[in-house]
Amino acid sequence: MDGVCRDSFGLLNNSIFNVWTCSLCYMYLFPTEKLKFNFNRISPGLIDVDVRNASDLKSTEYICDSLDEYDCTRWKDCCRSAEQCCQHQRDTPFPTKKKVCPRTWDGYSCFEDTYPGDTAKISCPSYMKYGDLRGHVEKSCTENGTWLSHPYTGKQWTNYTGCVTIKSISGVVNAEVSANAFSLLLLVPSVAISLTFR
Known about the structure:
A hairpin with a 2-residue loop joins strand 1 (about 5) and strand 2. By secondary structure, the chain is α+β, with helices and mostly antiparallel strands. The radius of gyration is 21 Å and the shape is elongated. About 40% of the residues lie in helices and about 15% in strands. It contains 4 helices and 8 strands; from the N terminus they run E-E-H-E-E-H-H-E-E-E-E-H.
């Protein structure tokens, strides 16, 4: 297993894992952005970009051109976390107990081997938009030694609801509504002036 890392889709060679997860970080963090993901696990990546890791200057500059500085930093942090997760997976000995939910990177966070019936609980990642760093992420290992699947998608599921509080979202919504209301207040007099001198 040396040189192999696991994400929620399965096992990958270390170098492919870094490209795959860094590209998925972009897709998960910015689903509406212009760069699209190549889902070929043999040669994954963001289409037209060869991303080997977040420290590859040429590709990160190209990708960060599609983002503002804050989002670029979030993306790089996610990529570095995935790389660190892979390194940790390779450095950690496998448990002696046969049946465990395997260590994995789920697209945002790194989870250790977890025994059946247990729930892994970790801190929220810093790069989640509107995330509350005081919250926790949970990933449940079923009694049969597989990660819990989402009832609708059938894919491995991680509970991030502890990371996004109503208070943090309502603060953002209130700020956006206030800014829009203020701009409308300023727009009315400017329209009136321009109509007067027309």
